[in-house]
Fold:
Amino acid sequence: MEFDTIAAISTPMGEGAIAIVRLSGDQAFEIADRLFRGVGGKRLKDVASHTIHYGHIMDPKTEQIAEEVMVSAMKGPKTFTKEDVIEINCHGGLVSVNRVLQLLLNNGARLAEPGEFTKRAFLNGRIDLSQAEAVMDLIRAKTDRAMNMALGQMEGRLSKLIQKLRQEILEILAHVEVNIDYPEYDDVEEMTHHMLLEKSSYVKKEIEKLLQTSQQGKILREGLSTVIVGRPNVGKSSLLNSLVHENKAIVTDIPGTTRDVIEEYVNVRGVPLRLLDTAGIRETEDIVERIGVEKSRQVLTEADLILLVLNYSDELTAEDENIFKAVEGMDVIIIVNKTDLDQKIDMDRVRGLSKHHKLVTTSLLEDQGVDDLEEAIASLFFEGSIEAGDMTYVSNTRHIALLNQALNAIDEAMQGVEMGTPIDIVQIDLTRTWELLGEIIGDSVHESLIDQLFSQFCLGK
Amino acid sequence: MTYEAGSYDVIVVGAGHAGVEAGLASARLGAKTLMITINLDMVAFMPCNPSVGGPAKGIVVREIDALGGEMGKNIDKTHIQMRMLNTGKGPAVRALRAQADKFTYQHEMKKTLENEPNLTLIQGMVERLIVEDGECRGVVTQTGAVYHSKAVVITTGTFLRGEIILGELKYSSGPNNQQPSIKLSEHLQELGFDLVRFKTGTPPRVNSHSIDYSKTEIQPGDDVPRAFSYETTKYITDQLPCWLTYTNEETHTLIDNNLHRSPMYSGMIKGTGPRYCPSIEDKVVRFNDKPRHQIFLEPEGRNTQEVYVQGLSTSLPEDVQQKILRTIPGLENVQMMRAGYAIEYDSIVPTQLWPTLETKKVKNLYTAGQINGTSGYEEAAGQGLMAGMNAGLKSLDKEEVILSRSDAYIGVLIDDLVTKGTNEPYRLLTSRAEYRLLLRHDNADLRLTELGRKVGLISEDRFEKFQLKKQAIEEEKARLQGIIIKPTSEVQELIKSQGGSELKDGIRASDLLKRPEMTYEHIQQLVPAENTLDADVTEQVEIQIKYEGYIEKSLQQVERLKKMENKKIPENIDYDDINGLASEARQKLKEVRPLSLAQASRISGVNPADISILLVYLEQGRIARVSAE
Structure:
């Protein structure tokens, strides 16, 4: 598939003040316009070439702002690849730039292969002949590395899961195919819409699960964004200090460029925590008070983990209960602090409010219970028993993109079923799902369907 | 001793299903054509199943017809029943299948060949090819006749070094005890072709008088008259039924107890058999949990008592076959007329062919059918048509034709063969086609008639009719896209009666038709067309509108690949000169010698990185040329 529109992060991985996502190809402007909300409804396709524009990247599905950006719009041929090029300048940090890339991939762009921008520059005559050999070396070198990586992952858990899932789909496909190619064989049950829907929703769930695990994979690399909440004076600051001092900080004090958030990274038993709004806690000891309820809710929704701190030596207040409400449905660990003082809190009520969440009691002052808390964090995270190092950055972005596409394909298949579209037509989307999953593990050989057909069913004259 | 026997544009060796299409195509497009067959009584003979069509295969027959071939017309004249299969499924997989009167099928085909002005049909056995300077220039027969030509098409079926295996018996033979072709096989090897040994088989035939049909289920043909050919106007209404019965535990035990006498398991058979056409002993061994297997009893014609026992292909000894048959309900007293047997034969490795079906080793030499590793009459006929067409075109110095995977099942078939090769007799399946929604049974004429016309195989009269049909489809589609249907009570009633939800607002007729519960007839009821349209026009309108979204998706897929299809690889490319190709890819590319980047990408063992490198290499040459100019 040459010359479709490709996208990739073009700045080095890691932390920097800005990061650039580059998009190149016929559809670069169209895809960018699907996501870009400029000032006054400005469309990139209408702007003058080689100009730069302020705006936001929006997730068209949720209509939520994903990132605040500056976008350079450059029409071919006066660009690096000689194609239409869009460069999206994001705030530094892997999370935001990754989110923008994901959105582009979900909206029609393909993740660029290693060296592909350079390859295009060459193919479109931008780079001269003497550089051709270098381009080839580049492709080969990068691909070999990618291949080694892929091989490493072939033995990995992800690969096994994908293979299992593909086998499920393959069995459905073989079943549908056999109904088509051998319509008179009564040995084979006719695949019905009902059966197809049932099997497809299973596949869909599994893909969603995989996407969740890849979220966890992402967390391993980028940190589990964590917010400490609680009324004033419950010991949030002590908790923060305890976590930071007990554990070696990975990165400290990276000022964000838009959000007034200072982040601190700590490593808790192998789980990297990115502590959000630590500045707020340091300055006022009270995030709710300082930035208002609305804003604090927003910070909460961005968090992967909430550490909710209560005071052992004080009665539960309405404010405590409000906080419980605010974090409903999230991953929360309840910390009842100050056990060194006399108990005034009603632990039964706390347990009632905590529901299924983990609950630990601490005396941060006396360094009691911190182990329990760390254990709780680690077990919460490793419940899915995701191991660090299972996925690497580049291939993982590719995996997520492919999984998302596979999810779309299976969704379309299911919509087709619900519409009453004939099964053999619905199957087009099902096959697509199977192929996309195959791309993740580098295996899309069509022949295996035919093998499946003949091993699963007894056919023939 | 040899003698000069004549000169032709094209010589076709063999007159089976591939041979007849090759000979007719070549002759009809203007090449003076000679057909030579071992036995004139075996023209278009059906050595196995007396049927034509079925899923994927039936679509091939339609494609052959759209390209001016004969198979569809011939079966329309000679079938004993016809059925449309998969009617409960989507339009992409519907397929017509006919049971043939195998004797009249042959006679009709022979008559057609005999009456073709530009075609000479003779009996003889070709033993050698005349190859000079790497070009094929004619053939020499067993009797020493030397025929010269500009191109040769070989369609030898299972005759090439054929060997029949029946129980403990094995002897040199073509199908149905015909004389095999041994010397030609040796000659092909001398010319440097790689040959492989394949195997196929056929079930016993039994006498209809000895069948108790009351113990079987009737399988009638469709009530609606059907035809393969777009030109057929006369329909056969007097149809014969087939009958269904089953094997049982007793059958399976009998087979199990006699496996030691099966040549399949004793090691006597070495050739690779097709998985989709297993013998009964194979089915019993591999699927031993199945309590029964279906057996279809199919009459071989109107003037014979011979009945084909579909599902019971076997090479077990004759006495065991007798006993097996008699365990089956309805066949308790059956009289077996011919025993089933397995046949081994030589095929050439099909990656030795260009997509035109010309061999890479010897110019102007084409092969088609089972010699290319396929199985099935329809697969053979499709290749025969293309090989004959290309041999004819080449002999007339015209440009040859390659069908792409998005043009036709025939394109899928040939591309699979020449790009991937095959390690078992190849059969077309709908699952082999990635664009099957585009390659439908109903639109074969829309896909291929223009090409047929261009090469000279479609008459002016037929082409005019085709264009009128095409125009009618477009006009009706445009009409439905232009009309708004308002939510009147009549409309709401109709929708409700079909179980749909009521309209909230006016809707385009075409959009209403897209609803799963609505048919063209319903729309017609609401907004009638001025003139009544032919059923094949309205069928197209309905399918094209109803499945527009999916068709569009497939077309986009084709479009994306087109760029790679259009990147041609020069024939003289030196793969050893390209740095960075993986060694497996290099070796495969040298073997297959793909014509386009897309074809290269379909070769197993050639991965995307190799394609990138190949692309860069090709562009390097282009850029060098441009800068030199």
Q: What stands out?
A: The CA atoms of residues 207 and 306 of chain B lie 5 Å apart.
